[in-house]
Fold:
Amino acid sequence: MGKNPGNLWKSECKFVAGAATAEQIPNNLFLSEVAFVGRSNVGKSSLLNALVGQNCARVSKQPGRTQQINFFSLADKIMLVDLPGYGYAAVSKQTRQVWDHLILHYLQTEKNLKRVFLLIDVRRGIKDNDLEVINLLDTIGVVYQFVLTKIDKEKKYQDVLENIQNFAASRPSAFPEVICTSSEKGLGIPALKATITELC
Ligand code: GDP
Structure:
């Protein structure tokens, strides 16, 4: 990272591409990438908004874009990659196909992918479909880091945190540190920004 990593988060975030097929994944040779993933409703859009500001991440909420991978570049230094949510019953079949083909392809082939941030709603913990993704990431060998979301909703989030830290310690590709966030209260956002900045 350059001399002024703090400036990264003040820079404009640009929507680069939305990929619904493997061919549409941008051919990014230079920028480091970090990806965000989680169950539908986990708070992924809110977290991206908290990181980069409303105007950018909102794009992923537009109809038809929820089932594609969205790529945002920040200060031409790093690519933030918004992977489609999973586990929402009404779109499960379609989601399944996207996960089976597009996302698997992305995770297996992206050379610049530094880390996947796997979002877990503090009130729900790790569910079966999270576990499927975790197993996949461990199998492919992509480093992932747990991010607890909505911690403002749970007074006893320390218990959940401890469970997930223990779980992470038992998994081959999980980063040991878990980041606790609340997009609503702005908690943990600086820590997440600092982690991403280090990966640039
Ligand atoms: P996504 O489907 O993963 O993109 O989730 P959203 O960002 O759309 O959030 C889903 C719901 O959770 C919305 O009603 C948000 O207002 C709420 N939410 C998201 N983040 C937080 C948070 O940090 N605290 C609380 N209390 N609610 C949140």
Remarks:
- Residues 13 and 100 are 29 Å apart (CA to CA).
